[in-house]
Amino acid sequence: MSKSTVANRYAEALFSVAQKQNIVDEVNQELQEMTKVVSANRDFISLLTNPKFSSERKKEIVSELFKEANSILLNTIKLLIDKKRINELVNIAEAFKTLAADAQGTAEATVYSTRELTEEEKKDISTSFAKLVGKESLNITNVIEPSVIGGVRVQIGNMIFDNTVANKLDSLRRTLVVNK
Question: What is the pTM of this model?
């Protein structure tokens, strides 16, 4: 979950409403798309936090830009504008994504490797590591990082499973230095 208490509260409220309406996946997808737009265009948040524009004008702009969005998500964004909390949107999306994954028995995982993993490798990693964290499966994001040299490093929440060649070499180096 997000480190922001405010974001967690908004995410939990949005999740509760989405769950009651059985549209958690839809809201999650739309929220993730919105955060991509916001992250790619920092001027958008600046516009929505600019005191020169009225809250009503800001809400009109959001309604025009996201007219295809789910009404509960659009209403949440308008509420964030009214409460001057629109800068929490990315944190809310992160917290909502975690809540949605927990409800489905999945978790978000980042896997660092030297090359792009195949779907079969992702499936094997998901099966193996999901059991370790008490989940049914993992949603894997693969990050290419040549510094791992070989093997993989899996990060699930605040847990890290490091089985990389770089880590093993570093461990060996520390052992050799201590035993000198």
Answer: 0.74
